[in-house]
Specification:
heterodimer, A: alpha+beta, two-stranded antiparallel sheet, B: Rossmann fold, 3 domains, seven-stranded mixed beta sheet, 24 helices, 25 strands, 34% helix, binds zinc ion
């Protein structure tokens, strides 16, 4: 989605949403969209089938009137993400996604502004991932060039480390399950990120919308631009934006819903079968689709048997 | 048995702080707390382990501060219960300086927490409120200028004389005794976890070893009076490790040790029963670490630990030791830093959003877009009127950060409706200086902009300077020159013809890119001036001296605003009626022309390789553009660079002049060569301007008498030579161009 369009469109969407009436007639089979009521029905079913997901009401100030106050959005937390989608794609030999200079943010990111010489360049023990390097340099570029970050001490240099506590009962952090470094078959060290995923209802597009808030392997909040590393290249350049989360206002990476409806319509059609799928299953299909966008974020969307 | 037992090791908590938490901390610090360092009571949340890969962290978000009315608190509790999370009570100490943070007496903080734990246990408060056994401390320092947050969490645990030991551990499903009722237990635990958020029974409960039934701990008596071998202590375990329980169990075991020891000691004192094992003898307890898989309590993920309770003495409890400072990324106890500058500081957020939007344009539509180059262009806006406002706003849209206004006027009551940066309030009290008011407005719109206002009248030909004022005026000419030096692109947006002369000349002398916009009643002109004459000469070694039949002045250089004129600029305001003095234009013109001026600069930035002179690109006219498109390369007015490409940039063509109007809604492109007797950009005036000892005199005479310029450039002589009236067809009356 083009940037100015996105900006203008976000503003327009806001106005339009305030004027629009919410969809009341079911059209998920014909158009791939759902009404707020159908969103709730599908959400209830998801929560029942996959209890890692739960409804949240969130802050009352951000509540949407067309959804029940305790069912404003769905959330699943602490979802592991063992490796970067980018890295996975590269090692799967899909570099062509990234190499075309004519399109794609990955390729465009490396136009001589930094690159591997950046402070942000990954440590040697990280996956030697060219796209990641570029993502890093891009993230760096996002800040002002003459950034005053330089005088914030690096915590490694911060001379305030406490004494190691003399405590036989504490498991050393190196042995903690979340920070144990493991290597994959190719010997690359994996750093397990976690994500809190949420699904809101987008009134304008009449589809769900997914938001990602990530944490690194030490559970430090990830800059939202870093979440792009966990989104397949194909989608990262087209449909991912960073916007304030509608219920928490925290800047979050989001898979923009502008193409959701046609995709959903196609997927629902492709399921075919004897009986038309019920709207209850909508979010399962949706999450299956989202799984292709964030292939390494291992959230639960195990479809029930009735879906097949 | 105890001889074989190893020390039970608990996996420490990991804090996971949502950026919303820091934003809320900052808000409270600014709005309420001020410089107070009084501790705040906050609440963190955790869940049982959800999978085998990562332990559940101690999460904090904006709602951790727990304020709000009853309905908000109820809504929060509902969300907590719906997502199966449990609360941890915490104390946050936010100090005012980094030095305070470094030097803070953490030892006392921890020992106070340990004392409180002992009190909560001994007083029986923890019997009813098990969350008191999972306390945490947050020591923070918020650098709100940089939106950096230093923090160090501690999860205080009592360190008892003899630590708890583990005898064996394994999955619930495979447990020799409980395995038989594992499904029953899992269902019971599931139901217990679904209790109301405030129900203390959600933290730990009792499982009957035989029936597998879960019983809420109705009172401490439940565990005191029953034989330890008949029940299992179930607790919500955030830890995913196969061999270790989470930190949450640690104080629970201490609590159990202390409370049951007290029972027995009390019992002994009363002479009722003397436990066969004795008060301080090791006692076994079976613990069920309740963990989930796929969202449900899972008998394979949940683990049973056969433990030996820790042992403590009165002395240990009188002066308890607490441990539990969190390690940082280096794996050692130490503070962490959350730098949210780029993600939460609204100012930086705005900057980032502006840049990101531009970058998205590059990523998705136009990889050749030189976003950074455009954004880093330092722009000098001469004139802060309708055009100045329009140009500035459009520059912001392109991410330009450095914008300087020059204007000598004050905001008047007629301005705000047409000049988009001013408001009614700016007109009061005689009116604010326009340049500074415009800069202020830009900063309000986008705090990331470096906008300045310079109050200055631009010295003009035909406006004689009294001797007394001469030093000041000459000073202004130098100030203007310095300003032009300090910027990359000059926008000429004044409302009289003569005020354009000195900037045109100065830019010509310096080869600086100048974009000129002028308005008539219903027509506009947007043009870029040619590069400096001297620059062109410097290049002429390779360029050749292409002279054409019109006087040899062209030499590939584009003309300026004055090149078409055969009259030097003079005083255009004195003898005019009010409607001629004021800029009487249709209000829609300025936004159109302003936007075109900016787009022209941006296209220019893409028109050549870096280091090349952007003004040297071919200038398109309608004709040349059409012909270059059709492949025949006769670029009239396209300069000496016609043998290169046609000059079409990634952003399209870069014309020399755009003339348009809203009467016939036309827009035409023109290109015109520089005129060798031009009063503003020809060699003679540029040379006079650049001559160090003659400059001031030259300028003074030009200001005093425009005819001087005509003579100096040979324009006067030419006018005499030429009797063709057509030369005089165009003068400066009427429209301002
Ligand atoms: Zn000229």
């Amino acid at each position: 989605m083009d940037a100015l369009k996105h900006k203008v469109h976000t503003a327009y969407k806001g106005v339009a949403e305030s004027l629009m009436t919410t969809r009341t007639t079911s059209a998920f089979l014909e158009k791939g969209v759902v009404t707020p009521e159908e969103f709730v029905v599908a959400g209830d079913y998801l929560v029942e089938q996959c209890p890692t997901w739960s409804w949240q009401g969130g802050d009352a100030k951000s509540a949407k009137s067309y959804l029940p106050e305790d069912k404003q959005f769905l959330v699943t937390r602490n979802v592991p993400c063992l490796k970067r989608a980018r890295a996975m794609e590269e090692y799967a030999g899909k570099e062509e996604h990234l190499s075309g200079e004519d399109e794609g943010w990955v390729a465009a990111g490396g136009d001589g502004n930094g690159g591997s010489k950046d402070d942000d360049a990954p440590d040697m023990d990280e996956i030697p991932d060219i796209s990641a390097l570029r993502v890093d340099s891009r993230a760096k570029e996002d800040q002002n060039d003459d950034d005053d970050d330089a005088d914030i001490p690096d915590m490694d240099d911060f001379d305030m480390c406490g004494d190691e506590e003399d405590d036989a009962s504490a498991l050393p952090s190196s042995r903690a399950v979340t920070t144990v470094t493991t290597a994959d078959d190719a010997g690359h060290i994996l750093k397990t990120r976690t994500y809190d995923l949420s699904i809101t209802y987008d009134k304008y597009y009449q589809t769900p919308r997914v938001w990602l808030n990530g944490y690194d392997e030490r559970r430090r909040a990830l800059d939202p631009t870093k979440a792009l590393e966990d989104i397949s290249a194909e989608h990262a350049k087209k449909t991912v934006t960073i916007d304030p989360h509608p219920h928490t206002s925290v800047p979050s990476a989001s898979i923009h819903p502008c193409k959701h409806a046609p995709v959903m319509k196609k997927l629902i059609e492709s399921m075919g079968g004897d009986a038309a799928p019920s709207v209850e299953h909508y979010l399962f299909v949706f999450l299956k689709f989202i799984a292709s966008v964030v292939p390494t974020i291992e959230y639960d969307y195990t479809a029930s048997a009735s879906l097949r | 048995m105890a001889a074989d037992a190893d020390t039970l090791r608990f996996e420490p908590w990991q804090s996971a702080v949502d950026p919303g938490f820091w934003a809320e901390l900052a808000r409270r610090k600014l709005d309420n707390a001020g410089l107070s360092e009084d501790p705040w009571l906050i609440t963190a949340l955790y869940t049982p382990a959800q999978n085998a890969v990562v332990s559940s962290p101690c999460q904090l978000d904006a709602r951790a501060f727990g304020a709000g009315d009853e309905s908000e608190l109820a809504a929060r509790a509902r969300d907590v219960a719906a997502s199966g999370r449990l609360e941890m009570p915490g104390t946050l100490v936010n100090v005012n300086t980094l030095e305070r943070f470094r030097a803070f007496d953490r030892g006392t903080l921890m020992s106070n927490a340990a004392k409180k734990l002992v009190e909560d246990i001994r007083s029986g408060r923890a019997d009813d409120d098990a969350a008191l056994l999972t306390p945490f401390i947050a020591l923070t320092y918020a650098d709100l200028k940089k939106w950096s947050f230093y923090y160090w969490f501690a999860f205080p645990a009592l360190k008892l004389d003899v630590p708890a030991k583990v005898i064996s551990c394994g999955p619930l499903a495979e447990h020799v005794e409980l395995g038989a009722v594992a499904d029953e237990i899992s269902r019971g635990c599931e139901a217990t976890l679904r209790r109301d958020a405030n129900d203390p029974a959600r933290t730990w409960w009792i499982v009957d070893n035989v029936s597998g039934e879960c019983e809420p701990p109705s009172s401490i008596a439940t565990v005191r009076t029953r034989d330890f071998s008949t029940w299992t202590l179930a607790f919500v375990d955030p830890c995913a490790s196969e061999a270790h329980p989470g930190w949450a169990l640690r104080n629970l075991l201490s609590w159990l040790a202390v409370r049951t020891r007290e029972t027995e000691t009390a019992g002994e004192a009363a002479g009722e029963t003397a436990g066969a094992a004795g008060a301080d003898a090791p006692r076994r307890v079976r613990v069920l670490a309740v963990r989930k898989s796929a969202g449900r309590v899972c008998p394979r993920a949940s683990r049973v630990f056969e433990c030996v309770l820790p042992v403590t003495t009165d002395g240990n409890l009188e002066n308890p030791t607490g441990v539990g400072w969190e390690v940082n990324a280096s794996g050692r106890p130490g503070p962490r830093l959350a730098n949210l500058g780029s993600s939460m500081d609204p100012t930086r957020l705005a900057s980032q959003a502006v840049d990101l939007n531009l970058k998205l344009m590059r990523w998705r539509l136009l990889p050749q877009l030189r976003v950074a180059q455009v954004a880093s262009t330092r722009c000098l806006l001469l004139g802060a009127g309708t055009l100045g406002c329009a140009v500035a706003r459009c520059l912001l849209g392109w991410g330009v950060r450095k914008i300087t206004f020059v204007d000598g006027g004050d905001v008047s009551f007629s301005n705000p409706v047409r000049q988009s940066l001013f408001e009614f309030g700016d007109c009061l009290g005689g009116g604010k200086p326009k340049a500074e008011a415009a800069a202020e407005a830009l900063r309000r719109i986008f705090p990331g902009v470096d906008a300045q206002g310079v109050r200055m009248m631009i010295p003009m030909p035909g406006h004689p300077v009294p001797d007394a004022e001469l030093p000041r005026v000459l000073d202004d000419t130098r100030r203007l020159e310095d300003l032009i030096d300090a910027h990359d692109c000059v926008y000429l947006l004044t409302d009289t013809r003569e005020s354009r002369w000195l900037p045109t000349l100065t830019c010509a002398a310096k080869g600086k890119l100048l974009i000129n916009a002028a308005l008539g009643f219903d027509s506009y002109l947007v043009m870029r001036h040619g590069g400096g004459l001297l620059r062109a000469d410097e290049r002429s070694g390779t360029d050749g001296t292409t002279t054409d039949e019109r006087g040899g002045a062209f030499a590939g250089r584009l003309g300026c605003y004055f090149c078409n004129d055969v009259v030097a600029p003079g005083d255009s305001t004195t003898d005019r009626t009010l409607d001629q003095q004021c800029t009487v234009t249709r209000p829609g013109l300025a936004p159109i022309a302003g936007a075109l001026a900016v787009e022209m600069m941006v296209s220019t930035a893409h028109g050549c390789v870096e280091g090349d002179d952007p003004t040297r690109m071919p200038a398109h006219t309608h004709e040349s553009f059409a012909s270059s498109r059709s492949g025949s390369g006769s670029g009239s007015g396209s300069g000496s660079t016609g043998d290169r490409d046609d000059g079409t940039t990634a952003l399209g063509i870069v014309p020399h002049q755009i003339r348009g109007g809203v009467f016939d809604l036309s827009q035409r492109l023109f290109a015109a060569p520089a005129f060798d007797r031009c009063v503003a950009c020809s060699e003679k005036v540029v040379a006079a301007f650049l001559k160090p000892d003659g400059r001031d005199e030259f300028l003074r005479r030009a200001f005093d008498d425009p005819a001087y310029l005509e003579n100096a450039t040979g324009l006067a002589a030419m006018k005499e030579e030429v009797d063709d009236a057509a030369w005089l067809g165009e003068d400066s009356d009427g429209d301002d161009f």
